[in-house]
Amino acid sequence: MHYMSTFLLSSSQINELVDPSKFNKIYYWFFEKLSFLQLPKYETHFVTTIILLIVFIGAMLILDYILKNIFISIVKSFTVKSKTKFDDILVKNKVLDNLTHLIPITLGRILFPIIFTGFPSLVHATIVITNIFFIVGIAAMLRSIIRSVRDYAKINPSLADKPIDSYSQVATIIVYSFSAIIIVSSITGRDLGIFFTSIGAASAILMLVFKDTIMGFVASIQVSTNDMVRVGDWIEMSKFGADGTVLEINLSTVKVQNFDKTITTIPTYLLISDSFKNYRGMQNSGGRRIKRSINIKMASIRFLEEHEIEQLKKIQLLKPFIEERQKEIEDYNLETNADQSMPVNGRKITNIGLFRAYVLRYVQQNPNIHKEYFIMVRHLQPTPHGLPLELYMFTNSTLWLFYENVMADIFDHVLASVHFFDLEIFELPSSDDVRSYTQNNPSNQNQL
Predict the structure, then answer these.
(1) Is 446 helix (H, G, I), strand (E, B) or coil?
(2) Distance between CA atoms of 278 and 244, rounded to whole angstroms?
(3) In angstroms, rounded to a whole number, what is the distance separating the alpha carbons of residues 233 and 276?
(4) How distant, in Å, are the alpha carbons of 25, 26, 93, 119, 291 from that of 110?
(5) What is the pLDDT of residues 53-104, one digit of tens each?
(6) 110, 114, 118, 122 alpha-carbon torsion, rounded to 10°
(7) Which of 415-422's residues contact partners 24+ apart within 8 Å by CB, and which partners?
């Protein structure tokens, strides 16, 4: 027995921790029940305290289990029947779970000093511990509420394009920061004002540590305020290989799903400091631009003869234009007394001019081309690869597949129509072209 007393606690140590004059009836009841062990008084106090602590903690854990499994089950049965989605989100993010944890913690903090009234040191330590658990529980519940608000805002159409993740992350950081300060204050017993003063003095260090977080938060606010990027926008940021749909805008990064289904992650603050292209304006306009050219071989461009013009009048889209242009040219040549024996005198119809007019009228009558936007067929600066003939117009849908099909159909027709105007498309010679040339011109083979 003497060995056990020495191993557990000495008499002087117990006297410092225990105040027998304040023991309550619950403690004495347990103390009397353990008298059959026939231990010395101090050892009996020690065993009584340990057993009472086990019973107390077990009772709190059982209460927590009952609340978590019975109360929450009842609440879930009501949320399933309700029409609103917010209560389902609260359950999903475990708001009720964290709320039920607070009940046994609060009850334990109230009852522990009553049951263990004769143990002032133990009571003080336990109050500090329960305070820490209570603060952690409050922080966990607030985090769940923040997440619930975030998830609910995401399904709200009016807020779906806002950087909700950034705001929720900032709110979570604030909750965790204040919780940590309160916990340290509770452990050390110092006033909260001292900690806030210390934080102010260490603000430079904090700004250095949280530099990216602060920059991301400021960028998120600017992006939202200026409506620069929304979730669902198609953006292109070539510097980072991003070309696709914005999936998420949070405190530190912007996630972009490229069209090959890869994900590119861009720091949020770079949306402010770097340039990027946002296709939202195009998508909202209802039209997507076609701006593509074909290269006409310049040696094939010439004036047309009368019989060729008559032949081209068979093209229904061109007949009214040719007749109007013939009259205009005839009046001009008569007025200027142009000598028609030289083709360059006066004005004449060219094959490239009629082809350009035909292409313009062809796309104007195309039902898939937007009639309220520019429709233009124009020459560009001649190049070593010929004369670029550019088609500039807008489709009446912004869908990618529709856009590509319409553009392909138009250029299929245009390319197939070129030879009717005795024009040629410029293309670099292939190996078959060189082989055919050398076979047809044996005398030039050595020169090649």
Answers:
(1) coil
(2) 10
(3) 12
(4) 17, 16, 28, 15, 76
(5) 787 788 888 888 888 777 777 777 777 677 777 777 887 888 888 888 888 8
(6) -20
(7) 415/294, 417/355, 417/358, 417/359, 417/362, 418/294, 418/296, 418/355, 420/312, 420/315, 421/312, 421/351, 421/352, 421/354, 421/355, 421/358, 422/300, 422/302, 422/308, 422/351
